[in-house]
């Protein structure tokens, strides 16, 4: 190993600049990937909320139909008892 193999301050500075540049590029790629993941999660969450709201609305409609049917049936039974029931 001779003096030509020894790194100078300029060599180390140049190496430091290259490492900084590579780190900056890596950081930019990670930021882009994180943004994509976050966007994907937001879309999935929005879809989940929309599905939940649709399911809730459908359940409400079904419950309304069941309660209305029960009221009509009870009213019919009471009407029948008042007409044909024991006096």
Short description:
With 87 residues, the chain is mainly alpha-helical.
Please specify the SSE layout and strand pairing.
Elements (H helix, E strand, L loop, with lengths): L8 H76 L3
Structural summary, described in words:
By secondary structure, the protein is mainly α. The protein has one domain. It is 87% helix and 0% strand. The chain has one helix and no strands. It has one helix spanning 9-84. The chain is rod-shaped, with a radius of gyration of 37 Å. The model has no long low-confidence stretch (mean pLDDT 93).
Task: Kindly estimate the percentage of residues that lie in beta strands according to DSSP.
Answer: under 5%
Main pleated-sheet profile: none
Give the strand tally: 0
Kindly, what is the distance between the CA atoms of the first and last residues, rounded to a whole number of angstroms?
A: 122 Å
Task: Enumerate the spans where pLDDT stays under 50 for 5 or more consecutive residues.
Answer: none
The helix count comes to 1
Order of helices and strands: H
Mean pLDDT: 93
> What would you call the structural class?
mainly alpha
**What is the oligomeric state here?**
single chain
State the shape: rod-shaped
Kindly give the count of domains: 1
| Percent range of helical residues | over 70%
Keywords: Membrane, Transmembrane, Transmembrane helix
Transmembrane segments: 65-84
């Amino acid at each position: 190993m001779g003096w030509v193999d020894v790194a100078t301050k300029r060599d180390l500075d140049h190496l430091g600049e290259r490492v900084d540049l590579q780190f900056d590029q890596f950081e930019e790629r990670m930021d882009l990937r994180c943004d994509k993941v976050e966007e994907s999660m937001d879309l999935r969450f929005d879809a989940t909320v929309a599905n939940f709201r649709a399911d809730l609305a459908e359940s409400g409609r079904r419950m309304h139909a069941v309660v209305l049917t029960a009221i009509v049936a009870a009213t019919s039974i009471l009407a029948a008892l008042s007409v044909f029931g024991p006096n």
